[in-house]
Specification:
- The chain is of the alpha/beta class.
- About 15% of the residues lie in helices and about 30% in strands.
- It has 3 domains: about 5-125, no CATH class; about 130-395, 3 Solenoid (Pectate Lyase C-like); about 395-434.
- The protein has a 10-stranded parallel beta sheet, covered by helices on one side. The protein has an 8-stranded parallel beta sheet with strand order 15-18-21-24-28-32-35-38, with no helix packed on it. An 8-stranded parallel beta sheet has the order 16-19-22-25-29-33-36-39.
- Helix 3 (about 175-180) links the parallel strand 13 and strand 14 (about 190).
Length: about 425
């Protein structure tokens, strides 16, 4: 709560007492009206300011507040001792003086900034219902996990676990505290904030999620999760309908742990960079309808993505999977109807995609790019696997050869057009070799 303003009638000054550094226009006009009510009607100047604005435009949109000081009244922030200059702010509307007048009086070691003086309108939900509706509208823009509950902020650098976590300024310091603030099944969101002055924030905490429908959303690779302990995997998802997006994930040196372990249904992993983990990049078991998309998984000691027992109808799409043992490995019992599409999978010491025996109806759709996988692009020992040609079957050269062979191989009658075409191809090949 700001301090009461001081009114100097002799010098026509409204002073904001130290240590306050912000003056809100609504607070200013409220204080002015309180003082004006005490003025005698017979005084020569019994009005200090006019105010306009806050006209309702509908939908929680209002015209901005404009306070016009009369009769040379000005606002001043109390002088500071120095030697450093302190910035002070006028917010929440527009402050203007009389004709040609400056509404701000100078004081020692202060610099005043009008943050909102150019703002034509202000947008403020008038009721909690409007606020909730706006939050749900924003949540509906997500590709998945659209429901939205409470929002909590996690800042490992500037946060404190004594805070309530409800704003970036009152963020908590640990994920464990943010997780405690969430309600099981309420679709709550934890926003990870990167505030380190270096530009990249690193937390050494393990992330264990045991509450359903929690969403962890970070700003991207500038928020790194690299635990100091090898006691557990970096991120463990043990609850249904959990989202993890926008974070960088790695294990400490010498670790044998996974980057992300999923033991639940409908997990959603997006926009993550999983780098150099001691175990698998991502390990999934006993999961259905989970999605991994738009992520990079590279340089894991184990497989890039390891699909274990009990995984049904999961989707892996639009990922870059690079330099692991297998890019994607299917091995275990009860694996059915899993889909891969539009991934870039390259430079693995074994296979790009490995499908063990007993795995049912795996679908490798088109749009994949494979390169330099030492033992082959796709190793299929499963049952009823469907592999589109460009996703790991014949190369363009092999397809062209097959077309030529189909046309020419059984047409060897001397003088026939097929024989002439075949002879021409042989001559062209020999000429190319020479």
């Amino acid at each position: 709560m700001p301090q009461p303003l001081n009114f100097d009638f002799y010098n026509s000054i409204i002073e904001v007492s130290a240590p306050d550094t912000t003056l809100d226009m609504q607070y200013l006009i409220d204080q002015i009206r309180d003082v004006e009510d005490e003025l005698s009607p017979g005084m020569a100047y019994n009005k200090i300011a006019d105010a306009s604005g806050k006209d309702d435009l509908g939908g929680g949109i209002y015209t901005a507040i404009t306070v016009r000081l009369l009769d040379n009244w000005r606002v001043r922030f109390e002088a500071r001792p120095g030697p450093d200059t302190e910035q002070c702010f006028i917010v929440g509307g527009n402050l203007v003086g009389g004709p040609g007048g400056n509404p701000i009086a100078p004081s020692a070691y202060t610099q005043v900034v009008q943050q909102s003086s150019a703002s034509g309108v202000i947008a403020t939900p008038t009721t909690s219902t409007e606020n909730i509706n706006l939050r749900y509208l924003i949540g509906s823009l997500s590709s998945r996990q659209r429901a939205l509950g409470s929002m909590f902020y996690w800042d490992p650098v500037a946060g404190s676990d004594s805070n309530n976590g409800l704003t970036p300024q009152t963020a908590v310091a640990t994920f464990a505290k943010a997780h405690d603030l969430c309600t099981n099944g309420a679709n709550d969101v934890i926003f990870a904030i990167s505030s380190d002055s270096s530009g990249t924030t690193t937390t050494t905490e393990n992330i264990i999620i045991t509450k359903k429908n929690v969403k962890l959303r970070g700003p991207g690779a500038i928020f790194k999760i690299i635990p100091s302990s090898n006691d557990d995997d970096v991120i463990v998802i043990n609850a249904d309908n959990v989202e993890v997006s926008g974070v960088y994930i790695s294990t400490p040196s010498g670790s044998s742990k996974n980057g992300v372990t999923v033991n639940a249904n409908n997990a959603f992993i997006q926009d993550c960079w999983i780098y150099q983990t001691g175990g698998h990049g991502i390990d999934i078991s006993n999961s259905s309808l989970s999605v991994i998309t738009l992520s990079v998984i590279e340089k894991s000691t184990g497989n890039g993505i390891n699909i274990g027992s009990g995984v049904i109808q999961n989707t892996i799409s639009k990922c870059i999977i690079f330099d692991n043992v297998n890019g994607i490995n299917f091995s275990g019992t009860g694996l059915e109807d899993n889909i891969m599409e539009n991934n870039i999978i390259y430079k693995h010491s074994q296979y790009g995609i490995n499908i063990d025996s007993g795995v049912l109806r795996t679908i490798v759709r088109g749009g994949h790019t494979f390169a330099k996988n030492d033992l082959g692009n796709v190793n299929d020992l499963g049952t009823d696997t469907y592999i589109e040609t460009q996703a790991g079957g014949a190369s363009a050269t092999e397809i062209a050869d097959a077309v030529w062979d189909e046309i020419l191989a059984s047409h060897t009658v001397a003088g026939s057009s097929s024989a002439i075409l075949k002879d021409a191809r042989v001559k062209a090949t020999l000429a190319a070799l020479k």
